[in-house]
């Protein structure tokens, strides 16, 4: 006689049945799964054993990160030290070993407090990233040649950044509770593996992903604290407060937005204020450097400058880039208030960061890391994600081949300027394409792969299923499975706030 299933196993089976499996709803994921045995079956016991989706994703993330380290092997074995162009022809460049010596860590200088030799004067990174770099230098053995120390410094940073990569994958997998397998997009992203150890961006990305997870759980203050820490590591995370403002405005969730804003300000000040008061010149270097930096790699501004006999001054470019960014913010706000259904938080978070990347005067190849988790949460569709990743990999190769061309002397080995401009164009078009499909999902909610499976806004926290209190234009559609149904009226622009129908028949 067969034993009766336990209550625990029954509940676990129900949870597994409720999960959205990409191999069951995504044609590209279904086809790709044939390489490892085919789509996940309905009798799969993942979730009732040790091999939960989150653990599988974490292990895959570690494996892909390790492959990224292997890709840097030619530089580790000498290209960082013995040839300027070889680190570009092998596409294995990293700032980390170069800045160990170039920013005073090899000499024991204290970031922001000790003045650097040369033109840089002080470390040009935000405070929390500077702390990360300093901690890695403490863990780096001080014996051996400077090359040995640089190699150790890169390895120590790689280990710390690998932890950040796993945190990102796990947080994304847990943000959409019914879609943990979307975290595989993070773990398998080729552009992320290639760029993970170029710089220290993964620290800010990990804190931002953790903040998004906290917001999805309704923990507004914790979200704010983590976002403030992320902003103390890199400037871009504070942009997420803009979409959150307009979403909370539309849903009337002012208290939660206030908590998020207060937590962000508090956490940022806790990190920055001591350095600001004790070493203002060193602290402000990041901000002055960003303002004074000219047009640089990866931007459409560079294409314009290199094809013009009279390039624009840096101040003019700063003003124009700011104008374009503000115009993008206004467009996103208008989209939020007029969309037939309130956009998901992840959708707007992706759009605002993508707008910053597209309009900025510089695009370093590791900036793709900013967008990867937001793209997965905004548009968890394998086809679109892989198209965008292919464009970013092409740009990754393009910039190094261009630098190889400019540093190889008369040999001119690599990609000439015109070819590099095409690589920039591919990156811009790939990012713009993903923005376009996200905007389409907002305007046509039935095309949104997340909402098509019956969810409203899994990353939205208090916004998930909430009623609208302020919209412009046509009334928003009522969210499916609204958990706060009936919590207040839906109000259109120009309609009375009390929600009373004052048509002719009621007068």
From TrEMBL:
Region (Disordered): 1-23, 481-507
Pfam family, one: GT87
Residues passing through the membrane, by range: 50-70, 152-173, 185-215, 221-248, 260-280, 316-339, 345-364, 385-405, 420-443
UniProt KW keywords: Cell membrane, Membrane, Transferase, Transmembrane, Transmembrane helix
KW Transmembrane helix (keyword) present: yes
Compartments reported by the entry: Cell membrane
Mode of membrane association: Multi-pass membrane protein
Family classification: Belongs to the glycosyltransferase 87 family.
Protein name in UniProt: Glycosyltransferase 87 family protein
Source organism of this protein record: Streptomyces broussonetiae
């Amino acid at each position: 006689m067969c034993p009766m299933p336990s209550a625990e196993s029954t509940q676990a089976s129900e949870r597994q049945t409720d999960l959205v499996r990409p191999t069951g709803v995504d044609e590209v994921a279904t086809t790709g799964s044939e390489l490892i045995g085919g789509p996940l079956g309905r009798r799969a016991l993942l979730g009732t054993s040790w091999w939960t989706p989150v653990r599988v994703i974490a292990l895959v993330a570690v494996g892909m990160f390790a492959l990224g380290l292997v890709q840097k092997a030619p530089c580790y074995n000498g290209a960082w030290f013995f040839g300027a162009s070889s680190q570009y022809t092998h596409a294995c460049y990293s700032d980390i070993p170069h800045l160990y010596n170039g920013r005073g860590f090899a000499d024991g200088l204290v970031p922001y407090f000790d003045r650097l030799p040369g033109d840089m004067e002080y470390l040009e990174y935000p405070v929390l990233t500077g702390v990360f770099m300093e901690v890695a230098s403490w863990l780096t053995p001080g014996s051996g040649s400077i090359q040995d120390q640089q190699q150790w410094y890169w390895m120590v940073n790689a280990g710390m950044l690998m932890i950040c990569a796993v945190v990102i994958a796990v947080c994304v997998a847990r943000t959409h509770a019914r879609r943990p397998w979307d975290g595989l997009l993070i773990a398998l992203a080729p552009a992320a593996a290639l760029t993970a150890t170029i710089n220290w961006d993964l620290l800010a990305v990990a804190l931002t992903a953790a903040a998004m997870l906290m917001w999805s759980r309704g923990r507004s203050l914790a979200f704010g604290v983590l976002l403030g820490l992320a902003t103390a590591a890199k400037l871009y995370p504070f942009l997420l407060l803009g979409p959150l403002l307009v979403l909370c405005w539309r849903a009337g969730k002012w208290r939660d937005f206030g908590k998020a804003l207060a937590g962000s300000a508090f956490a940022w000040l806790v990190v920055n204020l001591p350095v600001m008061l004790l070493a203002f010149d060193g602290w402000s270097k990041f901000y002055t450097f960003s303002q004074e930096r000219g047009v640089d790699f990866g931007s459409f501004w560079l294409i314009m400058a290199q094809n013009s006999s009279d390039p624009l001054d840096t101040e003019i470019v700063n003003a124009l880039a700011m104008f374009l960014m503000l115009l993008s913010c206004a467009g996103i706000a208008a989209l939020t208030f007029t969309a037939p259904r309130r956009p998901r938080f992840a959708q707007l978070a992706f759009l605002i960061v993508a707008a910053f990347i597209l309009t900025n005067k510089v695009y370093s190849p590791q900036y793709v890391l900013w967008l990867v988790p937001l793209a997965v949460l905004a548009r968890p569709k394998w086809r679109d994600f892989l198209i965008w990743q292919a464009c970013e990999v092409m740009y990754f190769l393009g910039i190094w081949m261009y630098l190889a061309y400019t540093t190889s002397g008369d040999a001119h080995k690599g990609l000439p300027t015109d070819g590099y401009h095409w690589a920039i164009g591919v990156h811009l078009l790939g990012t713009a394409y993903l923005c376009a499909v996200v905007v389409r999902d907002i305007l046509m909610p039935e095309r949104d792969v997340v909402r098509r499976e019956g969810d409203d806004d899994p990353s939205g926290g208090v916004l998930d299923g909430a009623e609208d209190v302020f919209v412009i234009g046509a009334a928003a559609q009522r969210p499916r499975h609204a958990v706060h149904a009936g919590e207040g009226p839906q109000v259109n622009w120009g309609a009375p706030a009390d929600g009373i129908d004052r048509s002719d028949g009621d007068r």
